[in-house]
Design brief:
By secondary structure, the protein is α+β, with helices and mostly antiparallel strands. 28% of the residues lie in helices and 25% in strands. It has 10 helices and 19 strands.
Amino acid sequence: MTASDPGESEGEGEDFGDGFPHRIHADAELAGGSAADAQGWFGEAMPRLEPVLLRAGALLFRGFPLREAADFRRAVAAMAPLQLRDYAGGTSPRSKVDEGVYTSTEYPRQLEIPLHNEMSYSLRWPGRLYFFCATAPQAGGETPLADSRRVLQAMPASIVEEFERRGLMYVRNLAPAHAPYNAWSKAFETADRGQVEAHCREMDIGCEWQPGGGLRIHERRPATRVHPLSGERVWFNQAHLFHASNTPMGARVDARIEAGLPMAAYYGDGGRIDNDTLAGVREVLRAQRRSFAWRQGDLLVVDNLLAAHGRLPFEGPRRILVAMA
């Protein structure tokens, strides 16, 4: 049983022409096999595909006999023998499906999630993401990608210089533990204040409990990183996603309102980042965006340093699962 990796585009709306993501298609024998066959294939093939992932930044496996969350979990276990990580400290609303497997996001379907590198605001982020299409949407719902190396190369030099010189600070105002939305207990996957404080100390997160039971946290991080294997510099931050200009109020947000938002982004020295700067960042990200239409059973592997991802609005049922390592 084998798989092929055609370079040609395969349908309207799918940007495979430049090899990003790199597509690998199961042959007829493997496609007609079992999930156990797929698990064995992934375990054997992934070591030789590592250089391809390092070059391309993302791999899309299509036509493999993966039908449900358990199939996905076993396939990921074959590819990533190390323990999958949890989502403690994460920002996206999602639910745990299995050990190490979550819904990709439960953000409202009519809204777009901007391109970002997962948990780039954190001291430790996942090196690899695994997405699985359990139910393909009727329309939209793509998980667009952007090569973080190309993003950095295309970013205006003045923005890169200032972001690197001043660094970034991410601020979050989390609701009380039992709040229905944005609760700190949901973000940290525990209702134990002591565990939250220990996590914050370990992860270099400043935290202050608020009088009403909420929690305010802040993290100072660099705007770019260097890939540990390739040595390439990449754009690796979520300033455009955290920033007040990403809210419906946009330019009308003053410093007082901004301080109370669920998320905000500043320069590392506490200075405000102006809206025009973030508009320039978003323009580059949009220009670098590539997308493909999900098909049931698709498995997407993303090097989180080399590729940013997002989510487009959609219609109909959509169920994309994610695991992180």
